[in-house]
Amino acid sequence: MEMGSETKHVMLVCYAAQGHINPVLQFAGRLASRGISITVATAAIGRQRILKDGDKATAFEADGNIKFEFFSDGSDPLMPIKDLDDCLGRLEREGPESLAGLVEDLRVQGRKVTYMVTTPFTPWVIDLAKGLGVPCSLLWIQCCAVYGYYYRVLHRNRAEMEVPLTFPGLPHLKPEDFPTLASPSSTYNRFPLLLTQLYEKLGDVKMVLGNSFNELEPEEIWFAEGLHLMKLVGPLIPQALLGCPTAPRLRKDMWVAPSNCLSWLDSKPEGSVVYVSLGSVSVLPPKQTEEMAWGLKISRRAFIWVVKPPENSSETGLPEGFLEGVEGQGIVVPWCPQVEVLSHPSLACFLTHCGWNSTLETVAAGVPVIAFPQWTDQPTNAMFLVDVLRVGVRLKVDLVTRDEVERCIAEVTDGEKATEMKKAAARCKEMARASVAKCGSSERNMQAFVDDIMDNGP
Ligand code: UDX
């Protein structure tokens, strides 16, 4: 598509992980529907997974006005993603030059970039945009409470990393509720460095946008003085979950779901199925997989469980005889269409790792949860779901036993407490829809951002 001289062309830059691609693609869709041309630029390491076999070109149209492009991160795109620190380091070393080359190539093709948006793993995009004289905003893809937490402990007071903290609008946060990537015991060193750089560059960004909504995080956005005011434009999740079933279904899954998930759900009674998934990164250790497996079996509830084998392996770690023993009760799949599963009437609850996308999706679907956070922002998100929104319970101990799994499933699906959680989840669903409705808070913030794009650049 050759663009006219008046066309605004926004480049959204993100890391090539499912949890980053998904909200960025939804954001792209919201902008494209307002007539803005979008390039989603992501690291080459994701090329093979995103393009899959059918897509031969390096760039392709995900939707009329949205194209994907890849820039080099110094890695072999055919190799599996092994180590986050290693990937982020390569990205930082190789990314800026390669992305600058891509922007120039696009200009030569008549697709001049007029605005850039970075996500948290690529803070150097802010410098690149500045050098090119192009305005740049930040899209924070986790909750604003986490943004404020990192700002406070990395930018202002490192001594607060290990003591309980109070933030306006949130329950007292204990260290076990903190995001793990800034913890002194974390083995991921590059992430705190990247975030520190990000906070230092905030003076050069036009707007800080957040994948959350004011009805969900009303006060937290104010809590860290000195922070840019964050404008919340979320939830950046498929519109089907927000009451718009006919909106175009933007999707770029890195794994393939078997075709039987939804027909299997169709065969189950309303409100009867436990959905278990730990997102696109986490893999349970073998002993925990075993306890989870037997916990699901003894719960006697129907279940659909996503067990993603580790990179380069087909080994699921399920105990011997488990699959035969649960035939008729549950299915285990390597990936599933999560949005469709969460909106299916057969669903009872979601046992989730509380990745921020899954958190927003379950909130918008009105599905109660069993929170099972693993790392990064997930403990804070779990606290949100359980202690603030009161839509679920939390699996507590380090190694969760089968009895604890069974007990939590019973608590969320049966009895008075379960009824209260269901009601709270239904209220959350309404809040999410209200935020993106005409004149809703996120819709207004999105319009303010679109106005900024229209007012800036050539
Ligand atoms: C990562 C981090 O782990 C998470 O904590 C952070 O908030 C975002 O980046 P991930 O672990 O993949 O993300 O979890 P999540 O944020 O929930 O994103 C997973 C996405 O994959 C969701 O949009 C979900 O709908 C989708 N998904 C997951 C599927 O479509 N099918 C599946 O089987 C599993």
List the helices and strands and how they pair.
Blueprint: E1 9-14, H1 18-32, E2 37-43, H2 47-51, E3 60-63, E4 66-71, H3 84-108, E5 115-118, H4 124-132, E6 136-140, H5 144-156, H6 190-200, E7 208-210, E8 230-232, H7 261-266, E9 273-277, H8 286-299, E10 302-306, H9 322-325, E11 330-333, H10 338-342, E12 347-352, H11 356-365, E13 369-371, H12 378-388, E14 392-394, H13 402-413, H14 415-436, H15 441-455
Helix pairs in contact: 5-6, 8-13, 13-14
The site of uridine-5'-diphosphate-xylopyranose has 23 residues, from helix 1, helix 10 and helix 11.
**Which stretches are low in confidence, meaning pLDDT under 50 for 5 or more residues running?**
none
- Per CATH, the superfamily of the largest domain is Glycogen Phosphorylase B
Helix content class: 25-40%
Radius of gyration: 22 Å
- Coarse shape: globular
Q: Helix and strand string, N-terminal first?
A: EHEHEEHEHEHHEEHEHEHEHEHEHEHHH
Number of strands: 14
Strand order of the largest sheet: 3-4-2-1-5-6-7-8
Q: Which hetero ligands occur in this complex?
A: uridine-5'-diphosphate-xylopyranose
* Structural class by SSE content: alpha/beta
- End-to-end span in angstroms? 19 Å
DSSP strand (E) fraction?
Answer: 5-15%
The CATH class name of the largest domain reads Alpha Beta
Largest sheet: 8 strands, mixed
Number of domains: 2
State the helix count: 15
Mean pLDDT across the residues is: 89
